[in-house]
Amino acid sequence: MKLRHPTREVEVPGPISVVKLLNRLDLNRESVLLVRNGELVPGDAMLDDADLIEIRPVISGGAE
Amino acid sequence: MKCTVCREPAVIDLRRHNSNFCASHFTKFCRDQTQKAIDEFDMMTPADKVLVAVSGGKDSLAVWDILLDLGYAASGLYIGLGIGDYSDESKRYAREFAERRGAELIEIDLPAEYGYDIPEGSRAARRAPCSACGLSKRHLFDQAAVDGGFDVLVTGHNLDDEAAVLFGNVLHWQTEYLGRQHPVLPARHGFPRKVKPLVRLGEREMAAYCIVSGIDYIVDECPMAVGNKHIGYKNALNEIERTSPGTKADFYLSFLRKAASRFAGEAEESRDGLGACERCGAPSTADVCAFCRLVERATSARQPVELTRKGS
Description:
Number of helices of chain B: 13
Distance between the termini of chain B: 82 Å
Number of domains of chain A: 1
Radius of gyration of chain A: 12 Å
CATH topology of chain B: Rossmann fold
Strand content of chain A: 25-35%
Strand content of chain B: 5-15%
Shape of chain A: globular
Number of strands of chain A: 7
Distance between the termini of chain A: 37 Å
Order of helices and strands of chain A: EEEHEEEE
Structural class of chain B: alpha/beta
Mean pLDDT of chain B: 92
Low-confidence stretches of chain B: 305-312
Radius of gyration of chain B: 21 Å
Shape of chain B: globular
Number of helices of chain A: 1
Largest sheet of chain A: 5 strands, mixed
Low-confidence stretches of chain A: none
Mean pLDDT of chain A: 85
Largest interface: A-B, 24 and 44 residues
Number of domains of chain B: 1
CATH superfamily of chain B: HUPs
Oligomer: heterodimer
CATH class of chain A: Alpha Beta
């Protein structure tokens, strides 16, 4: 499975749900969105081996 | 997972609302929440001339997009901060959005017009980069709004931003700041009215809004903000939110309803001491405002030093 932001390739066998993938990568669902082949998908969406996955961080800082 | 409204396939699940939405109902949800905040806090009317502070990031472009869709006459203001490729890229996103929506974008270039950039300003003033950046942006946004005859200045601060600031202010019992933490600051003492229409929407929702609306924005974090304490506060709150959805919203919105007024007196006292900066005329508690002092330090640090031989 290929991941973006940052771009990296991780070995996670599909099919796997969004929630399970994020748990596997130890990512908090509140801090990211998952985009599959350019489309936003919810937590129960199933991801396949061939999918291009972007796990997009949503936290921005800069408050002084 | 199906949309709670129309039963079509959902693109996002919002646990704190116990709801799932398809793209079109999610867009409507974001517009409704924005309008609700505008009405609830009496932020502005469609008759107002609105200036949106635009960074090229998700929140500022989303709030600009939503306000245009809601029928507000909203121009954008972008400040080039001179943070290398990050500034170049963020300016490109701001320009592309303005062009796509046919909206006016006002631009100010900090290095070209004031002679310093944020990395230099931060070093010269011995301030954290986010502090020098925030000080510069606040001053220039206020000035542009007042000079341009705008009725209201809009910023893209969202629920997560406000909850994180509240968290920090409570941790350190910054009671004066607690008194000022309201989604509307009225125009006074030379400051424009400032409003935060996204306070009912989280940043996960704003990023999702941009994706489903086809708004390109700068995803990468500002290189100067990495590791700042507010990001740490957001991560801490998101850890709580993970197991207790809705906690962030309750923390901030209940503060506004139940506690904010208790601190208003201290904020009033600090505002009463405001005079005018003797250089730029901006509201200030000192003879020279913090922005003019920052400009002076940053630009004097840039001037070449003439070395002379000792004793000559």
